[in-house]
Amino acid sequence: MGKQTDVLVIGAGLAGLTAAWQAVGRGKKVKVLAKGWGATHWHSGCIDLLGYWPLAADTAVTNPLQAIEQLIVENPQHPYALAGLDNITVAVNAFQALCAEAGYPLEGSPEKNWLLPTAVGTFRPTCLAPQTMTAGDLSDDAPMLLVGFEQFVDFYPHVAADNLTQQGIPAEYVMLDLPSLARQRRLTSVVLANMMEQETFRQEVAQALKPKLGQAARVGFPAVLGLRGLRPSGKRCLICWSGRFLKFLPCRHRWPGFGCTTFCRMRFRRREAGCLTAWKRWGRRWMGAG
Questions:
Q1: What pLDDT digit, counting tens, does each position of 266-281 carry?
Q2: Strand 129-130 versus strand 106-107 pairing type
Q3: Cis peptide bond prior to 54, omega within 30° of 0
């Protein structure tokens, strides 16, 4: 581990990076070892506290802290009971502050759950959600339009729209067939997210979408709008051109989760934590890069 390392963290998922970030904040020299990327790259970018309690409940928890208080009474050995309500609140607020500092704010609080649609149109309660997703809160039954892209096979808007409609949320869908996409031999979420970084492509999307909006009060895209997350300027442009509030649905390869990884790594570098990511083991040696 080395004489200059106080804390060695194995694993670069959300738990590992969070542990390392907290240790760094306490002035420790930290190294992170990971073989490949953690699960953050498939993470929705949302932070869950408690979605359902009791577990067999048919309705989602509306106030996570209140439900956790009940959970602690019924299960005093649960990790939440060992952490305590105060520490849970402090941890949630600290992570929220980290993301705000990185320019990717998470909206919400430990006292309220959002009810967001998944990529297949089911309901998902979550505590903190990226600012780009909260217009999709299903406690509001305003009609929505889900947007898919021809050739993009990681999101099927008709499935999500059908499921939402069956659950009382008016939803329709549209598939965009754009000249820029026709030139792509294989349209993956990585390719599409990279294209969304370009102002000209965002304008092409908005102009193709505007005549198809109908009565929709809000518009849902798969969460591939930029490799670093759709910056506020890009989001404002799409809202201006489309004339509707936007929301983003998680799909395969979730770039909001990738953003969480990036923010933590940036924090390590700024504080000179000595963060090391080991990509593979070669014999007895860990080959990696900081």
A1: 655 555 555 544 444 4
A2: antiparallel
A3: yes
pLDDT in tens, 15-34: 888 888 888 888 888 888 87
User: Is 214 within 8 Å of 145 (Cβ atoms)?
Assistant: yes
DSSP 8-class letter at 109? B
Q: Which range, 11-15, 96-100, 124-128, 133-137, has the best average confidence (pLDDT)?
A: 124-128
Contacts of 214 by beta carbon, 8 Å cutoff, 6+ apart = 145, 172
Of residues 257 and 9, the one with the higher pLDDT is 9
Alpha-carbon Rg for the chain, nearest whole angstrom, is 21
Same fold, 1-43+254-290 and 116-253: yes
The CATH number, out of the four listed (1.10.10, 3.40.50, 2.60.120, 3.40.1350), of the domain defined by the range 116-253 = 3.40.50
**The residue type at 278:** A
Nearest to 222 by CA among 117, 106, 119, 115: 119
Q: How far is C-alpha 279 from the chain's CA centre?
A: 24
| Architecture of the domain whose range is 1-43+254-290 | 3-Layer(aba) Sandwich (3.40)
List the beta bridge partners of residue 286: 281
At residue 127, what is the residue type? C
Mean pLDDT on 137-157: 91
